[in-house]
Model the fold of this input.
Amino acid sequence: ERLERERREGGAPDGRGGAGRPAWGGQEQLEALQERQRQAAANVATSRCSLQLLWRQLRCRQMRMLHEVSQVYPIEKCEKCWAIRGFCIVSIDSLSHQDLREEENVSTALGFLAHLLVTLAGILEVPLRISVQQAGCSRSFLCDPHESLDASVPPREFPLYYGRGLEKSRFETALRLLRDGLHQFLYSRGYFDERRPSSSNLLECAALIVHKEMYGAESST
Done:
């Protein structure tokens, strides 16, 4: 009678529940959970190793490309200025008062610098806040995509060259945009030190990016 009453109330001495489901013991449940936890931990460790390997491969590829770029666009510090491929770029303040006879050399150097910035952004996957057009030549120009909130209004073009018939203010704006793009690049990679005064030399900023990427963030130029 007692067994019959337990069956009617849902008890099951033979280890089965009232609905026909097996009644797991506490020890069996614990062992099953522990096994699932071990499997999950093993999967996490395997995924982590795979991601680390992919990151090392990507970083090695970036380093090779950075080395090649530094060979194409070597940046050197001269006595009074910085130079890229032998073409000097003085400070932004001095660039605004350059002799027109030096225009071709200056615009060529700025075109090289613009191309270097675009190339570094592509290698390191850094989105730029400026748009660079015709990079690498002496007639490069910049656009600020965020200049207007109206998407139907095309951004203005600011030349990285100057000469007769061109507004000097547009050239100066292009220099500021290029400087802001370099500073944004430094900031995005964690190299921009707000405690130090911002450099007014564009090539010095570019040289800092290349040096930090190739030799480590803790290295000094």
